[in-house]
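User: Fold this, then the next.

Assistant: Folding the first:
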Amino acid sequence: MMPQPLGPAVDTTPSDRPGPVTLTGRYAQVEKLDPKRHAEGLWRVLKDDDRVWAYLPYGPFKDRATFEDWLDERAVSLDPYFYAVVDRATGAPVGQFALMEIRPAMRVIEVGNVLYSPALQRTPAATEAQYLLARYALDTLAYRRYEWKCNALNAPSRRAAERFGFTFEGIFRQHMIVKGANRDTAWYAMIDEDWPAIRAAFETWLNPENFDADGQQRVSLADLMKKRATP
């Protein structure tokens, strides 16, 4: 009798869970969300733009007190495990995201709850924060699959996933009900064997030599990601 086909054997040692680390880059710093240090700054950069909440299951908030109550809950959550993004040039918090759907035994984890203020969007710090968190999940915590999921109608998030090196894997139809509306979810992921080339593309893009005197990129991250995928 022919044996049933099985996948290759893998290391079954569970990955570590996320912790209260500080990840420091050239433009951004990622640190454990702490309302005492981050609430005032985050409220300042988020309160005037309701669009940043459009595809999230919470927000916008009517006042600072309500926002701070919500942030207090996020800060003690273990899954999702929230981090603040701090602009190193100013020392101000400008966004947040989380590691979530944490499955150490399967060595699978997701980046989600991405909330970038207008002050962070389309900056080197925004990209570097994603690089720092991916490096932490894949290199330090030893996850073998790193996921990105978003509303299938969220075109900016889908472009970002591809720009950051994630591979599109399909649409989960009628996956959620969010704020009273249907959500089809687009699934993306990178796996551990993808990561070395993705990491190199990030590091090439983040190198100061990739920016001219006006701070304009010489080579786009999207182009670098395409090149790493070319045989």
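Now the next one, as you asked:
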Amino acid sequence: MTLPDLRPASGPLGASPAGLLAVAVEAGPAGPVPGPDALALAAELGVDLGAHLSAEKAKGEPGEVHALPVFGRRADTTTVFLVGVGKPDAPAHALRRAGAALARRAAKAGGELATSVPAGLDAEHLGAFAEGLLLASYTFSTTAPKKDATPLTAVHLHGVGKGKSSGAALDRARTHVTAVVLARDLANEPSLDKTPAWLAKQAQAAAKRSGLACEVVEPAELERRGFGGILGVGSGAGPARGPRFIRLDHTPSGRAAKRPHVVLVGKGITFDTGGLSLKPNEGMAAMKTDMSGGAAVIAVLQAAASTGLPVRLTGLVAAAENMPSGTAMRPGDVLRHYGGRTVEVLNTDAEGRLVLADALAYAAKEIKPDYVVDIATLTGAIGIALGKRTGGLFASDDALADALLAAADRAGEPLWRMPLVEDYRADLDSPIADLKNIGGRFSGGAITAALFLREFAGDVAWAHLDIASAARSDSDDDERTKGATGYVVRTLLCWLETLAAR
């Protein structure tokens, strides 16, 4: 999709030719306080903003938006939006929420929007406001836009200043949002067309756009090289929809080449029926987004390469379609993974960990990185534990966990660190293989899934992000949009930027 053009603007808000105007409203101790340009704009338009805010019982809370129609004074202005931004010391996420709410209300009218930002806004809060505006403007459709559609085409930001920090904040916001949009687009694509081969082509296109190195391993080569987990999961889909293993590399030169080498591993299940352990229909409805982890990896790699991020970075995506058929893996089968470890399959719907195991083992043996982070819509259990707005973080290294949690906080994408309960590990022992792919005695399905993955990550500092609930949304909510959310793309970019700054 095409996002609105975000433009810093000079001069007073009232001088803007945009048909939609918006002023920030802070939550003051005695009630809502209209921000910069509000009084001058009110006088020019002949409106009483205070009376309108009082009539609407406005509080100035983040995301609160009130529309004030304007008639007669200016032919080019139709509506003034009063958008709550919270208290002056509100966290950055309050500004992100405010930007998102404003974008959604303005998009109903369409055209161009001009808005003043709160006085004294720093780079972090300005960037969050811009991210909210852009992220909430996202839409996805497989059909052409309706003839009467008038999307938000441009946003003029008044009062952002001309300093380098403001420009850098807006550029960073655009970079992060562009990456999220790519991840959302990939995950929202219907699975009729989204085969593992299709996903590989999208990775190749991203590589071409940004200068990444790209390798795609096809089924015959997967078999020769021993990727038994990916092959097993993809065995029921047939030759036309066979599995792929995708590798992307961003290798900066100079001093950056000596920085830590990071590997991101993404689950790329392009559709998940559960295989022979078949899901009910309602459990399949959102399974086109079961490759959200892989989409995040592709998006982050493209953003890192496009901006020349000075961090050595490799992305691995294990792509397969989990289908029932006469050639599908069965409960009771034993798969031999990359590197030789064997797994007894007791539930074919616990397939994500099987493809990730191959990718993690490959990273440990062939790449030997400093950090490995895998991203996956892995378990329903994580949603039961944390709900739909928070992802689960498991980690073998406290420093890595702390860094990712800090990055998630800056990005406004909550993560909660979950325990790797050692007592649960014995539940993965198999009498006929090295491991089995599910436990059961202790419940804690998200924990046992993470413990399973840890077996393949080697001795490297490793983290696992289970985003099964947070990667999808049932409705538009703040900067999240219905469907795929692109979750943890911004978190990972924030973390990588921190590594680059060392």
